[in-house]
Amino acid sequence: DAGVTQSPTHLIKTRGQQVTLRCSPKSGHDTVSWYQQALGQGPQFIFQYYEEEERQRGNFPDRFSGHQFPNYSSELNVNALLLGDSALYLCASSLGPGQGVSEAYEQYFGPGTRLTVT
Amino acid sequence: AQKITQTQPGMFVQEKEAVTLDCTYDTSDPSYGLFWYKQPSSGEMIFLIYQGSYDQQNATEGRYSLNFQKARKSANLVISASQLGDSAMYFCAMRGYNDMRFGAGTRLTVKP
Any idea what the Cα angle at residue A79 is, between residues A75 and A83, rounded to 5°? Predict the structure, then answer.
């Protein structure tokens, strides 16, 4: 049973460039969430995709956008990269959008993509 | 706004002893979920345990238990019989209606 996979593992970009990160959810999962984890900090929620639509969004600028495909895989796009965008980007998958917060909403995380902006 | 606070940047515990990692939270949502994740140096977040805000009993998963005190808004993680492989970063997280928030984490080091 394949878990959550992310590509690439590492990426180096220059300020002002654009980047696309990819995520394939765990088999049977239909919801993908993206998180940014800066060095020494906890993950910060970027957005969540379910049924190919952005369902929830954290406090991130419009430079951060995403997409979900019919096979439930997802992409995170970041435009006009800033030095502060350097971080570990984590993808997490789950079954359903997790609207029922009193339910066991278990997310499975991928290994992450380490983005360095120079 | 939701907020998660982990006040222990680092903790040390002797192998085979128990350790408690602190977590307090603040939310105005009437219903929420509380989570603990382990993050080894490899970077992958590993789900450990979940507690729903309306659950009457504290959650347990093997050597992990969550000491949930709703009135105090605390959700401490207790790890019993620590093992060397428990050395990692531990994050407390809360899911409300709008998003999921993580604390800053606690680095646990298990000494042989």
Answer: 110
Q: Among residues A106, A80, A110, A114, which one has the least CA distance to residue B36?
A: A106
Flag whether residue A9 sits within 8 Å of chain B, measured between CB atoms: no
User: Is residue A22 within 8 Å of residue A118, measured between CB atoms?
Assistant: no
Please name the amino acid found at residue A102: S
E strands, chain A, where? 5-7, 10-13, 19-24, 31-37, 44-50, 53-57, 64-68, 74-78, 87-94, 108-109, 113-117
Contact flag A102-B53 (C-beta cutoff 8 Å) = yes
Between strands A44-50 and A53-57, the pairing is antiparallel
- Residue A25: closest CA among A56, A48, A58: A48
| Cross-chain Cβ contact A111/B33 below 8 Å | no
Cβ pair A88, A114 in contact under 8 A: yes
Using DSSP bridges, classify how beta strands A113-117 and A10-13 pair: parallel, antiparallel or unpaired: parallel
Query: Could you read off the pLDDT tens digit of each residue along chain A, which spans 118 residues?
Result: 679 999 999 999 999 999 999 999 999 889 999 999 999 899 999 999 999 999 889 899 999 999 999 999 999 999 999 999 999 999 999 887 655 544 446 778 999 999 999 9
Q: Residue A94: exposed, middle, or buried by beta-carbon count in 10 A (0-12, 13-18, 19+)?
A: buried
